[in-house]
Design goal:
The chain is an alpha/beta fold and 758 residues long. The protein folds into three domains: 170 residues, GAF domain (Beta-Lactamase), CATH 3.30.450; 233 residues, Glucose Oxidase, domain 1 (3-Layer(bba) Sandwich), CATH 3.50.30; 305 residues, Phosphoenolpyruvate-binding domains (TIM Barrel), CATH 3.20.20.60. The protein has 29 helices and 22 strands. It has an eight-stranded mixed β-sheet. It has an eight-stranded parallel β-sheet with strand order 21-20-19-18-17-16-15-22. About 3% of the residues have low confidence.
C-alpha cells in the first residue's frame, strides 16, 4: 500500500470516527468530550483541546483530553492572546515543536499544560468566520508534518459544520442577539452605486448543506467534480450571453475576467488535494472556500481580494452543481419583489442569478467602487453600498430596509414614522427630478443673463451615457484610470483606442476632456505592483508616475490621438506641480503626434491641452502656465487637503475644516483672477461643484464652468437659473477677508434672502 493511500485511509478513518461520535445521541458536551479523545488517540497526541468562541473576542476551553478537567469552561483567552488566541486571530494553522519558546506563549496554571512542549492548532472556520480553535499537544518536541496539519484542519471543518447545525454548545449568547435584532439600526458604508430604495431584507446565503463529508471512493469524487465543473462552465457561458450583458463596456470586461478566474488552476488543485485527504467533492470545495475567506481578513491588496471574492462566488456555484440543484445555479429561495440583498461579498455571476427587476438595492459587508459586482450593478442602475461593517449581524430576513445610496446609509428596521418620511422624501425627490427634466435642455443662465457651462465627471462608459440625459454641456473630466482599475490586465493601445472612441461617440457633438492616468495614492492598478508610499497623497502618483514610466503616457496619448481622428481632442494632465512637468508631458504628446503623422494616420482636427491645479505651488506659476495651456481645471479634492494640511480620508479631521472657509475661497478667487488675467478658461472639477450651496459660492467667485457627477446637473442648473450673479459676486468679496472658521451659514442666509434654490 502506498504512503499516499495510507495517509488517505488514516484521514478517512479519523473523519469517520469523529462523524460517528457526533451522530450519537446524548448531551452535546458528552459528545464533544468523546471527540477530543478520538482525535488524541488517532493523532497519537497526549492532549487534544477544543476552544469555542464566545462573547465576541473570547475563546473558552470547552473540551480537553489531557489537560486538567477543572479548566474546562474556566480557561479563557482573548483573540490574539497566547498561541490559541494567535491562531484564532490570524485564522491560520500553527505547528511548533517547542511551543513554550514562542514569544506569544501564555501559561495558564489551571490547565497543567507546562509539561507539554509541542503544539499544533488550527482554526475552526465556517463561512470564513471563526467559531473556535482545535489543538493537539505532545510532551516530546514533535515536528508535525504537513499531512498532520492538513488532517487536523479537515477535522476542524467537520466540527464547524456540526457546530453550525446545533450539535455543539452554542458559541454566541442568543439573548443579546435577540435584543439587538428588535431595534432600529443605522449603518454607513461606501457608495458603490447611487440611488435610493425602500424594500425588505433578503440574505444572500447560497450555502449548501453538506450531508456527506467523508469520501468512500476518491476516484468517484474526481468524476463528480469534473462533471460539476463542466456544468458550471456551460451555465456561466449561457448566463453571460444574455442580451442586456452582451454589449461592450466595462461590465463585459469584468464578466470575461470572471470566466478566466473560473478556470484558475491553483483553486482547482487545492480542491483536489482536499479530496485526496478523505473529503467528498462538496466538503473539499467548502474546505478551500473557508480557507480563502479566512485569508481575506488578512489581505489588503485590492486585486487579490477581488480574485478571492470571485473564487468564493464560484465555490458557491460549484457546490450547487455538486448538490444536483438547479443547473443554472439559481438562488434556493425565491426573491421577493423589492428585495434588498444583504451579503458579505458577492460575485458578478451570483448577482446576475437574481431577477434584476426584483432587486431594490444591495448591501455588502465588503466591496469597493471598482469591485466587479459594483461595476455590473452600476451598469444596471441598482443602488449598492459596500464596506458596511457587521451588516449581516444586524439584519434579519424580511426586515424593512431603507438604502440611501447617495449618502452611503442603510437604515434597518426603521420605524413607521421614518418610513413615512422616507416615502415622502422619495416623492419629493421624484417631483424634483421632474423639475430638473423640465429644464434639461435649457441653458444654465442666471437671472441677470450670465451663462455657466455645466459638465459631468465620468469614469465608466455608463457615466458617459448620461451626457444627453442630464442636459450637460459635455464631459468636463473623464477619469481614464477607472477603466484600467476594473480590468485584470493593462489595456494596450488598441483596447484604449476603442474605449476612448466609444466615449467620444457617446458624447455626440459635445466636448470630452480626457484626464491622463491619475493612479497611485489610493488608486492602485490591481495588476501592477508599484509599492506603497508612507504618505500616498503626497507620493508617487498621477503625472509624476507617468513621467517616470513614460511608456504609460506614450501609449495613452497615442490611443487618444487615434480615437479622436477627425474630432477635437482635449487632454488634461493631472497633479501638475510645476510648469517644467507640463512641458515634459507636452513633449511626449508631440512625439506621439509626429509619429502618427509619419505613418499617415488620421489626426484630430484640433488639440487642446490643459493642466489640473491640484497642488497649491502651481498657482504661483499661473502667468507662465497660462501661456502654455489652452485651459485649466481646478481639482479641489486634493487642492483643499494640501492647502489646509488635512487628510480628507481621516474622519478625525472631518469637522476641522470647511471648504467654504475664507482661506479656501480666497485661494480659489486668486486662481480665477490669474486665469482671467492670462485669458485662460478654467473649469472647477471637484466635489464642491456637485452641491448647490458650494456651487453657488464657486460661481460667485467667478467660475463660469463647473464639472460634477451626472445626477447633480439638474440641481445646479436650477440654482443658477434662480440667482443674480453680479450681486452675488459683490457679496462674496466681502467674505474673503473674514477670520471665520466657515462662512457657510452666511452664504446659506444669502441664498434664503434672495430666493436662490439651494
Amino acid at each position: 500500500m502506498s504512503a499516499v493511500h495510507e495517509s488517505w485511509e488514516a484521514s478517512r478513518r479519523l473523519l469517520r470516527r469523529v462523524r460517528d461520535v457526533m451522530a450519537d445521541g446524548g448531551p452535546s458536551q458528552d459528545r464533544l468530550d468523546k471527540v477530543v479523545r478520538v482525535i488524541a488517540a488517532e493523532m497519537v497526541a497526549e492532549v487534544c483541546s477544543v476552544y469555542l468562541r464566545r462573547s465576541g473576542r473570547m475563546l473558552v476551553l470547552y473540551a480537553t483530553q489531557g489537560l486538567k478537567p477543572d479548566a474546562v469552561h474556566v480557561t479563557r483567552l482573548a483573540l490574539g492572546e497566547g498561541l490559541i488566541g494567535l491562531i484564532g486571530e490570524q485564522a491560520q494553522p500553527l505547528a511548533l515543536a517547542d511551543a513554550q519558546s514562542h514569544p506569544q506563549f501564555a501559561y495558564r496554571p489551571e490547565t497543567g499544560e507546562e509539561i507539554y512542549h509541542s503544539l499544533m492548532g488550527v482554526p475552526i472556520l465556517r463561512g470564513g468566520r471563526l467559531l473556535g480553535v482545535l489543538a493537539v499537544q505532545n510532551r516530546s518536541r514533535r515536528n508535525y508534518t504537513e499531512d498532520e496539519v492538513e488532517a487536523l484542519q479537515t477535522v476542524a471543518m467537520v466540527l464547524a459544520e456540526v457546530a453550525a447545525s446545533g450539535d455543539l454548545p452554542r458559541w454566541q449568547e442568543t439573548a443579546a442577539i435577540a435584543e439587538a435584532t428588535a431595534r432600529p439600526v443605522r449603518l454607513t458604508g461606501t457608495i458603490l452605486g447611487g440611488g435610493v430604495a425602500l424594500g425588505t431584507a433578503f440574505l444572500h446565503e447560497p450555502r449548501i448543506s453538506i450531508r456527506r463529508m467523508v469520501a468512500e471512493n476518491p476516484a468517484e469524487e474526481e468524476i463528480r467534480l469534473d462533471a460539476a465543473l463542466r456544468e458550471m462552465y456551460s451555465s456561466l457561458d449561457s448566463m453571460f450571453a444574455a442580451p442586456d450583458l452582451a454589449a461592450t463596456g466595462e461590465h463585459r470586461d469584468v464578466l470575461d475576467s470572471y470566466l478566466m478566474i473560473a478556470q484558475d488552476r491553483g483553486w482547482l488543485e487545492r480542491i483536489r488535494e482536499a479530496m485526496h485527504n478523505g473529503l467528498t467533492a462538496e466538503a473539499s470545495v467548502r474546505r478551500v472556500q473557508d480557507d480563502m475567506r479566512a485569508r481575506m481578513r488578512q489581505i489588503r491588496d485590492p486585486y487579490i481580494r477581488e480574485r478571492l471574492h470571485d473564487l468564493d462566488d464560484l465555490s458557491n456555484r460549484l457546490l450547487q452543481h455538486l448538490a444536483a440543484g438547479d443547473p443554472n445555479g439559481a438562488p434556493p429561495t425565491e426573491l421577493p419583489q423589492g428585495a434588498v440583498l444583504f451579503a458579505r461579498s458577492m460575485g458578478p455571476a451570483e448577482f446576475l442569478d437574481y431577477p434584476r427587476e426584483r432587486i431594490a438595492a444591495v448591501v455588502l459587508e465588503e466591496g469597493t467602487p471598482t469591485a466587479h459586482v459594483a461595476v455590473v450593478a452600476r451598469a444596471l442602475d441598482i443602488p449598492m453600498i459596500g464596506a458596511v461593517e457587521d451588516a449581516l449581524g444586524a439584519v434579519q430576513p424580511g426586515d424593512p430596509i431603507i438604502v440611501d445610496g447617495n449618502n452611503g446609509q442603510v437604515l434597518i428596521r426603521p420605524g413607521e414614522d421614518v418610513q413615512a418620511v422616507f416615502v415622502e422624501s422619495v416623492r419629493l425627490r421624484e417631483m424634483q427630478k421632474a423639475r430638473y427634466a423640465a429644464i434639461r435642455d435649457e441653458p444654465a443662465i442666471s437671472l441677470d443673463g450670465i451663462e455657466v457651462a455645466l459638465h459631468i465627471n465620468a469614469g465608466l462608459q455608463i457615466d458617459a451615457e448620461h451626457v444627453s440625459t442630464s442636459g450637460a454641456a459635455g464631459i468636463g473630466l473623464y477619469r481614464t484610470e477607472v477603466p484600467f482599475m476594473v480590468r485584470d490586465r493593462f489595456p494596450d493601445v488598441t483596447d484604449q483606442t476603442e474605449l476612448y472612441r466609444r466615449i467620444i461617440e457617446l458624447a455626440g457633438d459635445k466636448p470630452v476632456v480626457f484626464r491622463t492616468l491619475d493612479i497611485g495614492g489610493d488608486k492602485l492598478l490591481p495588476y501592477w505592483r508599484a509599492g506603497r508610499d508612507a504618505n500616498p497623497a503626497l507620493g508617487w502618483r498621477a503625472l509624476r508616475l507617468s513621467l517616470d514610466r513614460p511608456f504609460l503616457l506614450h501609449q495613452q496619448l497615442r490611443a487618444l490621438i487615434r480615437a479622436s481622428a477627425g474630432r477635437e481632442l482635449r487632454v488634461l494632465f493631472p497633479m501638475v506641480t510645476e510648469v517644467a512637468e507640463l512641458e515634459r508631458a507636452r513633449a511626449i504628446f508631440d512625439v506621439e503626434s509626429r509619429r502618427e503623422q509619419r505613418i499617415g494616420g488620421p489626426m484630430p482636427t484640433r488639440v487642446m491641452m490643459g493642466a489640473m491645479i491640484e497642488v497649491p505651488s502651481l498657482a504661483w506659476q499661473l502667468p507662465a502656465l497660462c501661456r502654455r495651456v489652452d485651459f485649466l481645471s481646478v481639482g479641489s479634492n486634493d487642492l483643499v487637503q494640501f492647502l489646509l494640511a488635512a487628510d480628507r480620508q481621516n474622519p478625525r479631521l472631518s469637522n476641522r475644516y470647511d471648504v467654504l472657509s475664507p482661506a479656501v475661497l480666497s485661494f480659489l478667487r486668486f486662481i480665477v483672477a490669474g486665469c482671467d488675467t492670462g485669458g485662460t478658461p478654467v473649469t472647477f472639477c471637484g466635489e464642491m461643484a456637485g452641491t448647490p450651496l458650494e456651487a453657488m459660492a464657486l460661481v460667485g467667485l467667478g467660475f463660469r464652468s463647473l464639472s460634477m457627477p451626472p445626477p447633480a446637473v439638474g440641481a445646479i442648473k436650477l440654482m443658477i437659473r434662480s440667482l443674480r450673479l453680479r450681486p452675488l459676486a459683490t457679496y462674496m468679496q466681502t467674505l474673503l477677508s473674514l477670520p471665520d472658521h466657515s462662512v457657510r451659514d452666511k452664504i446659506r442666509a444669502y441664498a434664503n434672502d434672495h430666493a436662490v434654490t439651494v
